[in-house]
């Protein structure tokens, strides 16, 4: 790949030039050869370390298989010593991997950053020259393939190494020890705890992990207490329906809740279905009409803005339709999650955390109201009112096309945030119990396991919606940054201040969505 993508690729690019062939070759080929050789060094060192981890894991796998075949395992007298020796080797390998990571960390950061920026630039340029400049298109495509390969293979090598290193503890815990062999069992438990604490992560100068998430999420841009009575009183506690009441009201206003409760079951309401269909139909038809007829001719980046408007309208409308399609099944799944969290709350109340549950209920409801005001009212409604008022045509339809899908999508996002906050607070309570009292450790571990299951189910419910929303926000952010930067760099703010202000407004909204989603997810996982 080094020979084909770099050497042959740059030679081909140089040959199709009419002048400066040798100079072009020297400027572009030699630096990329140096960088490529250094990257291959990283790959080889990672593979060597990964193979050692695989050897250790192979030995643990053998012992795990033996333990499944023998009733009174282990049979060797030096079993504990072997386990400790393997764990010691694993610890040394993790230390070596971290030292290797620190040696190449700055290089990885620069390489990933450069590849990412150049990839975005080449893909963007290709959109505008693909029809008339074949030679440049060849250069762009060749560069894109090279950057994608570099990014992919760096991530693959790092992810495979970390996976192999962190898999050891799973294999060790899979070894079945006879209950009468207390020393061996204790040595396995102690070794597993050491491995859990010794987790390997490959980073770029400790700014971000180099893993599979990097391929999609890498980018550069991206409360006071409520007065509550101190006495224990369940009548002061908010139910889940009361905590979620602001969101429920918003759902009903937007036509996102076409159901009614009948004998304890969710059934469709004919009136609410009509309301939902009217909203979605008007929005979809208006979007299709605007995308088909929208033009912007008096600006150099008219095609970019047209592309962004098309992406914004179609992308957000698609997410909105998806939310409506899965609304019933998701509503039932969320009800099941609430039942599981309520079970956890009953156990926490037995441990004397009634006041804490009451307090967090009020705090979370207050946070949901603040998010609805900030995101839906300020960033969406007021922001789109401004964008519509500075337009010369179709102001009402323009406002409806952009504000309604964003209101639907952001309301579902806020629902996701609120559920994550509810679960995070339960994890905090469990962690406080572990830190202060070890008498109920089995009960606490059982609650922790239930909460992890609930978190994974919540992630599954919102996973596809989050993927589409993040992809949309990311692409729109890149486009808005490009447009705003063009206006600033070429001194066009006075003549095109409207375009600049709308791009800035959209960028703030997208950046907030990406930032807050990452913040809530990270804090929940950390807890």
From TrEMBL:
Q: The organism sits in which domain of life?
A: Eukaryota
Q: Where in the cell is it found?
A: Cell membrane
Question: What is any one of the record's Gene Ontology cellular component terms?
Answer: plasma membrane
Q: Which is a GO BP term held by this UniProt record?
A: signal transduction
- Keywords for this entry? Cell membrane, Membrane, Receptor, Transducer, Transmembrane, Transmembrane helix
Please list every transmembrane segment annotated in the UniProt record, as residue ranges: 29-48, 108-130, 243-261, 273-292, 304-326, 369-390, 396-419, 467-491, 497-518
Q: How does it sit in the membrane?
A: Multi-pass membrane protein
Name the family.
Answer: Belongs to the insect chemoreceptor superfamily. Gustatory receptor (GR) family.
Q: Which PANTHER family match?
A: GUSTATORY RECEPTOR 8A-RELATED, INVERTEBRATE GUSTATORY RECEPTOR
Q: What does it do?
A: Gustatory receptor which mediates acceptance or avoidance behavior, depending on its substrates.
Tell me the protein's name: Gustatory receptor
């Amino acid at each position: 790949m080094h020979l084909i993508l770099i050497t042959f690729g740059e030679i081909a690019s140089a040959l199709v030039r009419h002048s400066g062939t040798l100079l072009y070759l020297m400027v572009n080929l030699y630096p990329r050869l140096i960088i490529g050789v250094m990257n291959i060094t990283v790959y080889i060192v990672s593979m060597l370390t990964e193979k050692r981890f695989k050897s250790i894991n192979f030995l643990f796998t053998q012992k795990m298989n033996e333990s499944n075949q023998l009733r009174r395992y282990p049979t060797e007298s030096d079993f504990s010593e072997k386990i400790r020796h393997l764990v010691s080797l694993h610890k040394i390998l993790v230390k070596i991997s971290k030292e290797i990571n620190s040696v190449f960390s700055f290089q990885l950061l620069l390489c990933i950053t450069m590849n990412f920026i150049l990839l975005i630039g080449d893909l963007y340029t290709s959109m505008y020259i693909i029809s008339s400049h074949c030679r440049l298109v060849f250069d762009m495509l060749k560069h894109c393939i090279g950057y994608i390969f570099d990014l992919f293979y760096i991530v693959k090598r790092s992810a495979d190494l970390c996976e192999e290193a962190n898999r050891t503890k799973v294999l060790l815990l899979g070894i079945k020890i006879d209950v009468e062999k207390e020393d061996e069992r204790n040595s396995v438990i102690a070794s597993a705890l050491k491995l859990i604490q010794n987790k390997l992560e490959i980073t770029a100068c400790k700014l971000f992990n180099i893993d599979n998430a990097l391929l999609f999420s890498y980018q550069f841009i991206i409360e006071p207490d409520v007065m509550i009575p101190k006495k224990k009183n369940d009548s002061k506690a908010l139910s889940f329906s009361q905590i979620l009441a602001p969101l429920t009201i918003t759902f009903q206003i937007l036509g996102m809740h076409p159901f009614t409760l009948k004998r304890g079951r969710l059934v469709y309401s004919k009136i609410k279905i009509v309301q939902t269909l009217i909203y979605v139909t008007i929005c979809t038809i208006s979007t299709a009409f605007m995308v088909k007829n929208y033009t912007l001719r008096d600006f150099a980046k008219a095609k970019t803005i047209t592309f962004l408007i098309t992406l914004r309208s179609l992308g957000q409308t698609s997410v909105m339709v998806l939310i409506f399609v899965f609304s019933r099944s998701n509503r039932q799944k969320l009800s099941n999650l609430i039942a599981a969290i309520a079970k956890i709350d009953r156990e926490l109340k037995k441990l004397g955390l009634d006041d804490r549950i009451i307090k967090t209920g009020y705090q979370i409801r207050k946070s949901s109201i603040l998010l609805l005001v900030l995101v839906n009212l300020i960033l969406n409604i007021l922001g789109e009112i401004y964008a519509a008022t500075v337009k010369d045509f179709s102001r009402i339809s323009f406002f409806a096309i952009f504000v309604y899908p964003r209101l639907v999508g952001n309301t579902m996002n806020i629902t996701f945030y609120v559920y994550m906050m509810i679960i995070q607070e339960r994890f905090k309570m469990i962690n406080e119990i572990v830190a202060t009292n070890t008498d109920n450790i089995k009960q606490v571990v059982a609650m922790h396991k239930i909460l992890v299951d609930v978190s994974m189910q919540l992630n599954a419910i919102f996973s596809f919606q989050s993927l589409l929303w993040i992809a949309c926000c990311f692409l729109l952010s890149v486009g808005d940054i490009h447009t705003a930067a063009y206006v600033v760099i070429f001194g066009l703010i006075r003549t095109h201040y409207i375009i600049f202000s709308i791009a800035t407004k959209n960028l703030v909204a997208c950046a907030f969505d990406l930032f807050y989603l990452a913040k809530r997810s990270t804090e929940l996982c950390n807890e």
